[in-house]
Amino acid sequence: MTNRWKTIVKRFLVPYLVLPVLAVSLLSTSSVADNIVIGEAPPDYLGVSTDGDEIRLSADTGRLQIVSFWATWCPPCLKELPVLNAVQNQAGAARIRVIAINLEEPRSQFRRAMKAFADFEITFVHDKSGGIAKMYGVKGIPFMIILDVDGTVAFKHTGYNETALNGIVDEINGLLIKNRLLDDSGVD
After folding, report:
1. Strand pairing report for 64-70 and 96-103
2. What angle separates helix 75-91 from helix 165-178, to the nearest 10 degrees?
3. How confident is the model at residue 35 (pLDDT cuts 50, 70, 90)?
4. CB within 8 A of 61, min separation 6: which ones?
5. H or E stretch including 166?
6. Superfamily the domain 3-178 falls into
7. Do strands 96-103 and 123-127 pair parallel, antiparallel, or not at all (unpaired)?
8. Domain parsing of the chain, residue ranges
9. Which of 3, 167, 171, 183 is least surrounded by CB atoms within 10 angstroms?
């Protein structure tokens, strides 16, 4: 882990040592709500990005979309975001769009996180009230859905840890190849 990430982890995790243990134990065992179904389109509206743009999944069909709910107190979330940013950067924004939705944290905490992630290219949304997460049936974080190019859910994950990230990246690569957005050598 680089010094920068150690600083981010210390800044965001140390003040929240009790809350994460309690929340992860309660949330990570929860199941994904039935309203997110593989092969069907999820709720369209995802909120407003940090750039002030309204985010709707229907506006972005034709490329893979990854929606991830996260919080600064969630260690797996903080490890996942750099991986998702790298995946989007490597494949290119024309092929993949990552939307990272911060869940129910104070605006000041979200702003501090945005400063730490200032060089990230992924789209960030702040769901302070939890309304978007409720539409998605989020019961545990990290929570991720991967949408195919037609806007339907190809994969969903909840309550996972960093050991699952390689498999998730494999799922994304498989969809890129299936949709001929990338050849099977990883080069287009």
Report:
1. parallel
2. 30
3. confident
4. 149, 150, 151
5. helix 165-178
6. Glutaredoxin (3.40.30.10)
7. parallel
8. 3-178
9. 3
